[in-house]
């Protein structure tokens, strides 16, 4: 029996048809009480980019994804202990962090922010990944 739950498994040949990749990945992994969420961008789970050219709109969609993945793992946003945010332009810091801050108001995670030269696709302006730790006495609203 595996102690790891892999959420929303996929293969990169399906999600990145414009690249020669064939990697088995997933969107989140729950290992015991810890949930690791893969970097989320402004693309919904149907593959539609939200907010072309708009870092705040992309951050909004990325945080919607984070929330949904944590809930699928039996967790929620309040359990986030660490975020790592990547932006491709330092001018995007304020709009992206305002959105992330709105979603994580009262959570107080540790945070790392990086300005990088590019992300996996040219239309992506930001990406965020998170780690959450579910308290031992937590009972998910979904019963997980």
From TrEMBL:
One of its GO terms (molecular function) is hydrolase activity. Its EC number is 3.5.-.-. It is an enzyme of class 3 (hydrolase). Keywords: Hydrolase. InterPro entries: RutC-like_sf (IPR035959), YjgF/YER057c/UK114 (IPR006175). It comes from the Bacteria. Belongs to the RutC family. This is RidA family protein. It comes from Phytobacter palmae.
